[in-house]
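Appendix B. One record, verbatim.
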Amino acid sequence: MTLSSPKNKVCWFVFQDDKLLLKENNGLCDEAELALITPYILRSFKLGTFGTIEYYAAEIHKETFIPTTIDLVPLRKALQLFNHEEYGIVVKAYSIINWDKNHQFCSRCGSTTVHRSKSFERECTSCELKFFPRISPSIIVLIKKNDHLLMARGPHFSPGIYGLIAGFVEVGESIEEAVHREVREEVGLKIKNLSYFGSQAWPFPDSLMIAFTADYESGEIVIDKNEIENANWYKYDNLPGRPSMSVSIASKLIDNFINFFENK
């Protein structure tokens, strides 16, 4: 589904905390809506021109009066309304807003920072340390054992929802080493035949998800109770609750696995 109308030459991704402002027809805010909330804008940035449309990002104050023609939609829900191209733009918009909000002060000396125009850069007014939008590499892996795959759920998951093994890449390790470590730490298994699947920008909080498939090699499931609440092997046609966001790369990994067996 495409949110922005071709008639709109300027579109705004406007956030209030982790919610996106959308018009009743799921459209992005244009200059007409923006005029109503301009006094409440805390920060704004031009993201760039994509096709014939200029995209901007802005954050508004928590106490902003929202017109009845506009809905506040949680970002996790809103992401599922975007097509592939716009998905990347909204992730960029949300990430730029959070980067600016989180780097108002220097982490080295505590002085204020200033935004350098025409770039996504903040610089300390005292020690001149520079701050750029952050990307945190993360891995996610679908582990296969014949026509079964490993699915797990953490204690923070919504009731009934299961996902795949995932985690952040740590300092000093390669992406591949991170996959093997996360699997070993979270479920106690050894894997083999690690294969790259794809990647996805993921704004929770600032990740680049790097996806793999792998085959089970050895071991019994022993969960890390600090990270995992439950984990087990499930046949492709009898899976527990799926990841809640269909646009996630976790869902794409699982769909690819299911389609392989259904089309055999």
